[in-house]
Each structure stands twice: as structure tokens, then as C-alpha cells.
Amino acid sequence: MAEPAAAAVGLGRAESGGGADGAGADPLLPQGENGVNGRAIRVGTRRSQLARIQTDSVVMMLRELYPDLHFEIVAMSTTGDKILDTALSKIGEKSLFTKELENALERNEVDLVVHSLKDLPTCLPPGFTIGAVCKRENPLDAVVFHPKNCGKTLSLLPEKSVIGTSSLRRAAQLKKKFPHLEFRDIRGNLNTRLKKLDEKEDFSAIILAAAGLKRMGWENRIGQLLGPEDCLYAVGQGALAVEVRAKDQEILNMEGGCSVPVAVNTLLKDGQLYLTGAVYSLDGSDSLKETMQTGVSYPHQNEDGPNDDVQHVGITAKNVPGRAQEAAENLGVELASLLLSKGAKHILSVARQLNDAR
Fold first, then answer.
1. Rounded Cα gap, residues 266 and 135, in angstroms
2. Which of 216, 235, 295, 297, CA to CA, is 20 to 30 A from 7?
3. 3-state DSSP call for residue 262?
4. Which residues are catalytic?
5. 31-66 pLDDT per residue, tens
């Protein structure tokens, strides 16, 4: 579970007093006329409107920090963008929205790529690291209702109302919370899914990430926010991650899964990091949920030395004390171990088998 480490990264960046992604704490890079050592900085992104908006926001922050550098955006399609007639959980690819971008990064066709953090697999391929996690948007899930259901909530929808979602995590939790509703897959980018909702009678509502709706300027479409008591969100939801080559120190200095029903909620308060983790059966009838906490309030120290390049769950965070990162990562491991000891592996194995058989 990368969520605790990501929370620690956000804490360190907030304390550093740098830019929104913490990059302001690092020295300026050697520059040519147009870029780092005379080259432009190429930024990889998916082609969707939301992906471009998210990437533009990261580039805007970098331009504010490095006004003399030139940034070029390189857009491409990913496996998840191309296959729209199959549920994400049945495609079988662990890097649905990231593989093509990482291939371009490996071939040196781009210098960094911007992802929704929740789209990244748990383990990054060798040679890659997350160089920055930007300030997080609202991580909660949101309900967008068909115009005829405006003003309602999920609990007030009629029996057998159909709710669209491409996420097993959302469907599993909400089936348990709202047993009178039916849940069906809906694929496509935000524009496509909203069009399917508004122009047809197939869905009474759809579930989307609140962060994406806000970034698109469609916050007014949110009819209901789903708190932790209704639906725990995905690991990393609402945050943007900047992925780079692990050995590209110039770019690092600048920065300073949909397939299983696993969910989290995190809270950072008074130097304590609280992590709630849960796993669910596909129909939500069987579940495990536990909460653990750890202290992450450690002073910044000079940590140059043999451990200088240690990554925590794929994240390189030079502005966060190493002990805080270790504590956050250990919290995720300990919580995962606790859930496994109580039967989480069996619940997830059954969920995968049932999903494959659908």
C-alpha cells in the first residue's frame, strides 16, 4: 500500500515551503537557452481532456519555478484508452494507463510523465521512480445523477436503479451499503461517461472521482460526495504523480490499481498518520476493515550517504525525512499484514475468480 508514504511525501512538501509539489526547495538546474543543458523538457501524457488538464497544471507549476526552460507536451494513447468495450478488471493488464508512457520514458522520447497516482501499479518497473506527488485534490468518490434524478441521493433512488462504475472497489462497497441498487460497468473518459449518462436512460447515476470533476470544471455536477462511511477511496486518488527515470538526476532535482476491490482512507493529524484499509468481496457481503496509526513527525536531517537514493514504494522524496518515509511505508506493510492474517487473501482470491468468470 503506497498511501501512507504518499501522505508523508505531501507532509514534507507542505513543510518545505517550496512550490505546490515541493520542487522549490531544490537548486536551479544548469540551463541552456531552451532547456536543461540546452534541451527542451518533454512531458508525456495521455490524450484525454482530463489528462491534458492535469499535465498542463504540472507544467504550469514547473514553468513558474523555471521560467527560462522550454516544456513540450507529448500526448499518446494507452491500453486503457483504446479498449473501451471490456471492464478494466478483466483486461488483465496491470499498467492500463501507464505502460505506453513508461515505454516512451524508457526510450528517452520523454523526460517525465504525469499520471493520476491511483492509475500506477503498486510496484513500478525497474529504473523508474515517482519524483513528485503534487498537492492532493479531494480524494473522495462522487455521484453524478441523471438529470431526472437531480436532488436525490443513492439511498433515495428507486429499487433496481442502475449505477455505472468501472471500479470493482466502488461497486463492492456500494452494493453492501445500498443493496437496493444495481451496478454495471461503464467505460470511457469523463466526457464519454457523462454523455452516456445524460443522453440515455441506461443509468440512474454514475460514480466518478470528485478530483477529476473539479479539474474539468464540472464540480456542479456532483450530486453526492461519498464519505469513508459509504465508500473508501482508491490508494492515491486525487493526487498527481510525476514519473521519471530513476537515474535522471537533472529531472529529479526539478521535481524534488482498478483491478481489485481494495480501498483506503488516510488522515494526518498532530504528527500521527492514521491509515484505514479494507478489502471486499465483489458483492460487498464479505469484507475486512482495520485502522492503524504511526508517528511521522521527525526533524529534517542531513541524510547524505549510502541510503541517499532509497525509494519508498517507488517514490523519491528528498524533502521528507527518511524516518518519516520509513514509518509511513511500514504502516502500510503492517496494515496489509494484519488484513492478510485475518483472511484478506481469501476474499481477494475469490473476488478475482468471480470477476474472471463474469
1. 15
2. 216
3. strand
4. 119
5. 444 456 556 899 999 888 999 999 999 999 999 988
Kind and range of the H or E element at 226? strand 224-226
Q: Are 135 and 176 in contact (CB under 8 A)?
A: no
Within 13 A of 167's CA, how many CA atoms are on the CB side?
Answer: 24
Q: For residue 46, what are the contacts with CB-CB under 8 A and spacing of at least 6?
A: 52, 75, 76, 77, 78, 81, 97, 101
Position 142, amino acid: A
Span 272-299, pLDDT tens digits: 999 999 998 888 788 899 999 999 998 8
**Beta-strand pair 41-46/71-76:** parallel
pLDDT (tens digit per residue) in 187-224: 888 999 999 999 999 999 999 999 999 999 999 999 99
DSSP code of 124? P
Residues 230-267 have pLDDT tens digits of 999 998 999 999 999 998 988 888 776 455 688 899 99
Rounded CA separation 292/335 (Å): 7
Are 136 and 117 within 8 A, CB to CB?
no
Task: For residues 282 and 351, give the distance between their C-alpha atoms in angstroms, rounded to a whole number.
Answer: 6
Give the contacts of 91 (CB within 8 A, at least 6 positions apart): 79, 80, 83
